[in-house]
UniProtKB/TrEMBL annotation:
<dbReference type="InterPro" id="IPR008767">
    <property type="entry name" value="Phage_SPP1_head-tail_adaptor"/>
</dbReference>
<dbReference type="Pfam" id="PF05521">
    <property type="entry name" value="Phage_HCP"/>
</dbReference>
<dbReference type="InterPro" id="IPR038666">
    <property type="entry name" value="SSP1_head-tail_sf"/>
</dbReference>
<protein>
    <recommendedName>
        <fullName>Phage head-tail adaptor</fullName>
    </recommendedName>
</protein>
Length: 114
């Protein structure tokens, strides 16, 4: 088993959690992304696949983000990195020196339009 070195964590990512919040008029706004923390991570693309929907194809990329252990990250959270958004689909906490987060990026929802 290899040891995680600080120099390998060379990407700055923001962890976001969907929460229900109140608007300026007291209205309930569901599923707003709230920044939880900005941390150093390693990011590796694992795969991309095409999925056919009604009349179009979409590409879903699977990425692996490795970072120092945190107890709070859950499936459904978001990772923001380089103006891209990834959805956490699995969290592996089996190694004492790190957590590995499997996340998917649906290119239809990129803020950059790519």
């Amino acid at each position: 088993m290899s040891v995680l070195h600080a120099g390998e964590l060379n990407k700055r990512i923001t962890l976001q959690c969907p929460r229900t919040v109140r608007g300026k008029l007291g209205e309930v706004i569901p599923d707003q992304l709230i920044d939880i923390a900005t941390v150093w991570a390693m990011a590796e693309v694992k795969s991309n696949r095409k999925i056919r929907t009604f009349d179009q194809q979409q590409v879903v990329e699977t990425w692996l983000f490795t970072l120092r252990p945190r107890p709070d990250i859950r499936i459904g959270w978001q990772i923001r990195w380089q103006e891209l958004l990834f959805t956490v689909v699995a969290v592996d906490r089996t190694r004492p020196d790190r957590i590995e987060i499997k996340a998917e990026r649906d290119t239809r929802h990129d803020r950059t339009g790519h």
